[in-house]
């Protein structure tokens, strides 16, 4: 339901993941070449790939560094069959091991000493292996154990990164393909900070979605130089479909700890957008943010209608308010009963989607009465002073861009309350 421009002000001012067990998503030849080209290493003697799969990354490495000794490891017994050994072979010295790359004693098993590899390349599996005490040791050796609230937050991506760091020599280069979590999620900000303090994180490139078959996961290329000095600034870029790269944004360490994705750092500042209006954060403009509690599987059985993702109306332009339909409005008595079992949005609240691929397009205003909201919805409670500006911001291109770039997630997108409250408008 939408309201015409005449009604808009009135309403606004009223008070009111990965299914493969080994995470086998293989890198295309183009992305592999692109990562290898970005690694500044002239004549590495020893090149390592953990989780080599069908060998696209190590083949690109072998093509560039023809004299290097190449060592690949994969736990999958079938992986060597997929590895195009013939192609790598001939002039390249190549040894493959079928082994668990997360074995704490991997270096002994593959005959390499810790701290000796010149270049490591890796597209780790994006899975969460059952926790083993080896993992704590690997994280500790890599200087990352203090960077996590709980060591068990570490997925295979971070563990592979840590294992590579153990094996690399000082000033050795690590070229990685990373999932969204390590690059943008708040719970990994300590990891980003620790990595930038201990190493030179040279660049992070946001890849176009869909570069991996069968997944829309957001992924990134990253290149790091082990213990080559603290990272002052990281070069952050975006790759378009077709492989063309954007200009680099230099992101200082403290902002990099927050996030390292190009789309976040490339969004225009509020001053640039608005000119004269003094920007404030959403956190300063709201008095409360209520997250619904009814999950989608419980909606049908809930005695009152529950406002959920499919109930948002399409935008009808800047001048028309999108209003929660009357059928969701509860009378006084029903609202009191429902509030014992669910969180309610109140008249005047602005509703946003908390999850979803296109969450930035969802917006609604509560007008007719309190309503029950699902756990995919945020209700922003604000004052008359801020409501209209806030609503208009979310309905604008700039607001949608701010929501889209604040959300994160490998495939589905999530908007955290912290990221939402930090947006300036
Ligand atoms: C995302 S795929 C990447 C494959 C290849 N590097 C590429 O870029 O195309 C991850 C690879 O890691 C392997 N893998 C998963 N868990 C492993 C483990 N614990 N030890 C060694 N390899 C593992 C999988 O078999 C798979 O080949």
How does this model look, in words?
Helix 16 (384-395) packs across helix 17. Helix 3 links the parallel strand 2 and strand 3 (69-74). This protein is of the alpha/beta class and 425 residues long. The chain folds into two domains: 2-17 and 271-422, Adenine-n6-DNA-methyltransferase TaqI, Chain A, domain 2 (Alpha-Beta Complex); 38-266, Rossmann fold (3-Layer(aba) Sandwich). The relative contact order is 0.12. The protein has helices at residues 5-13, 29-37, 56-64, 79-82, 85-88, 106-109, 133-141, 156-167, 180-184, 189-198, 253-258, 262-266, 270-274, 282-285, 332-338, 384-395, 397-406, 417-422; strands spanning 2-3, 46-50, 69-74, 93-98, 117-122, 168-179, 200-206, 219-225, 233-238, 249-252, 286-291, 306-307, 321-322, 344-345, 350-353, 363-365, 371-373, 377-382. It has a nine-stranded mixed beta sheet with strand order 4-3-2-5-6-8-7-9-10, sandwiched between helices. The structure holds S-adenosylmethionine. S-adenosylmethionine (SAM) is lined by residues 22-27, 51-54, 56-57, 73-76, 79, 100-102, 123, 125. S-adenosylmethionine binds at residues 22-27, 51-54, 56-57, 73-76, 79, 100-102, 123, 125.
């Amino acid at each position: 339901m939408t309201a015409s421009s005449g009604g808009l002000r009135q309403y606004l001012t009223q008070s009111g993941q990965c299914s493969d067990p080994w995470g086998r998503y293989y890198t295309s030849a183009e992305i592999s070449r692109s990562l290898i080209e970005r690694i500044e290493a002239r004549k590495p003697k020893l090149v390592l790939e953990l989780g080599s799969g069908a060998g696209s990354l190590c083949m690109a490495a072998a093509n560039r560094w023809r004299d290097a000794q190449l060592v690949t490891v994969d736990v999958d017994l079938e992986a060597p069959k997929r590895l195009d050994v013939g192609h790598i072979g001939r002039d390249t010295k190549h040894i493959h091991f079928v082994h668990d790359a997360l074995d704490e004693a991997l270096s002994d098993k593959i005959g390499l000493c810790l701290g000796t590899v010149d270049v490591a390349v890796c597209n780790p599996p994006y899975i969460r292996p059952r926790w083993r005490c080896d993992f704590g040791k690997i994280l500790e050796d890599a200087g990352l154990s203090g960077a996590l609230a709980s060591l068990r937050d570490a997925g295979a991506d971070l563990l592979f990164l840590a294992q590579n760091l153990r094996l690399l020599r000082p000033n050795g280069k690590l070229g990685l393909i990373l999932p969204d979590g390590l690059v943008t999620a708040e719970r990994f900000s300590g990891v980003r900070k620790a990595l930038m303090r201990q190493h030179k994180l040279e660049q992070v490139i946001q890849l176009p979605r869909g570069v991996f078959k069968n997944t829309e996961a957001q992924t990134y290329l990253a290149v790091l130089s082990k213990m080559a000095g603290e990272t002052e600034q990281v070069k952050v870029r975006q790759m378009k479909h077709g492989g063309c790269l954007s200009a680099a944004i230099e992101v200082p360490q403290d902002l990099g700890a927050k996030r390292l994705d190009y789309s976040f750092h490339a969004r225009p500042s509020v001053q640039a957008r608005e000119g004269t209006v003094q920007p404030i954060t959403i956190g300063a403009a709201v008095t409360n943010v209520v997250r619904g509690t009814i999950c989608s599987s419980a909606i049908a059985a809930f005695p009152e209608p529950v406002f959920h993702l499919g109930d948002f109306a399409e935008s009808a332009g800047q001048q028309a308010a999108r209003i929660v339909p009357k059928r969701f409005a509860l009378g006084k008595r029903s609202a009191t009963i429902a509030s014992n079992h669910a969180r309610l949005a109140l008249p005047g609240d602005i509703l946003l989607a908390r999850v979803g691929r296109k969450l930035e397009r969802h917006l609604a205003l509560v007008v007719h009465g309190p309503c029950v909201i699902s756990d995919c919805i945020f209700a922003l409670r604000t004052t008359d002073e801020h409501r209209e500006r806030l609503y208009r911001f979310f309905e604008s291109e700039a607001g949608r861009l701010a929501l889209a770039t604040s959300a994160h997630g490998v495939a589905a997108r999530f908007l955290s309350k912290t990221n939402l409250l930090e947006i300036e408008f």
